[in-house]
Amino acid sequence: MTKQRAIPKDYMTVGEAARKMGVTVRTLQYYDKEGLLHPSGESEGGRRLYTDKDLVLLHQILSLKSLGFSLEDIRQRLISLETPEDVAEALAKQADVLHQKLRQLSESLTAVEQLREEVLQMQTVNFKKYADIIVNLQMKNEYYFLIKHFDDEMLDHIRRQFDEESGQAFIRRFHQACEEIQRLSQEQVPPESAKAQQITKDYWDLIMEFTDGDMSMLPKLMEFGDFDHAANEWEEQQKQVNEYMEPALQFYFTNLGVNPFEEG
Questions:
Q1: Which residues have C-beta within 8 Å of that of residue 253, sequence separation ≥ 6?
Q2: Which tens digits make up the pLDDT trace of 21-43?
C-alpha cells in the first residue's frame, strides 16, 4: 500500500478546512474557481492545502454572503489581511455583521412579544401577522424590521407580489441600487449626469416592479423612508437616497415628459 504523503505543518486539507468551517468541500472548490478563496498551498501529491489565514478569509466570505451580497460584491469587499491594520478592519466589519444580526434578533423578539401581548389581551390571533413573523424568521431576512413600516394593505400586496425567493432577490437588487445612489451622493455626482440618470432609471424600474404598475401605491412609498431622525444605518442610508433621488427623479421625469406622482 502506498503511504500517503504527510501534510506540512500549519496546513490542512480541503476536507479538514470544510469541516472546521461547517461548509462542504464543493463550496470551497467553488470559491476557488470563482477567485474568491484560493488555497495557500499544495501538497507533493497535488492536494489543495489551506491555512488558518484562509479560514479567516472564508469567514469574511460567509459573513458577507449571509447578508445577501452577491459574489461580485463580496469580491470587492474582501480585505487582504496582509497587515495588522487589515486584520483590524476585517474584525471591525465582522463586528458590524454581528451587530446587525443582533438588531435583527432584537426586532424579531420584539415582534413576538408584541404578538403574544395582543393574543392575551384580545383573545384572538392575527394569523397574517403571525405568519409574517414566522416566515421572516425562517428566511433569516435581514430586512425584517421593514415590515413595521408597512400597513396591512401594503403587506397584502407584498404577499401577492413576491414569494420567498423573488422577495429576497428583489431586496438584494434594491439594496445594491441604494448603495450605488449613496455612493454617487457622497461623491457629489450631479443628479442630472448620465451616470446618475442611469441608476435613476434602474431605481424607478424597481419601484414599478414592486408596485406592479399600481400608481395608487406611490404616495405610500413616498412616505416610506421619510425619517425626521435616522435611528439606524439603514434609515440614514434611506435619507441620503431620498435626498439625492428627489432632484434626480424630477430630471428623469422631465426628460420623459410625464409626472407619475401627479397621475397617481
A1: 259, 260
A2: 989 999 999 999 988 899 988 87
Q: Which amino acid is at 218?
A: L
> How far is Cα 47 from Cα 170, in angstroms, rounded to an integer?
40
Q: Residue 63 contacts by C-beta under 8 Å, 6 or more apart in sequence?
A: 93, 94, 97
Specify whether the CB–CB gap between 48 and 13 falls below 8 A: yes
Contact 31, 21 (CB under 8 A): no
DSSP letter at 193? S
For β-strands 41-42 and 12-13, DSSP reports them as unpaired
Of the candidates 217, 235, 212, the residue with the CA atom closest to the CA atom of residue 154: 217
- At residue 140, the 3 state secondary structure works out as coil
How far apart, in whole angstroms, are the C-alpha atoms of residue 34 and residue 245? 35
Closest CA to 43 of 9, 1, 68: 9
Q: Determine the Cα–Cα distance for residues 75 and 73; give it in Å rounded to an integer.
A: 5
> Angle CA(234)–CA(207)–CA(238) in degrees, nearest 5?
20
Tens of pLDDT along 170-205? Answer: 888 888 898 899 889 989 999 999 999 999 999 999
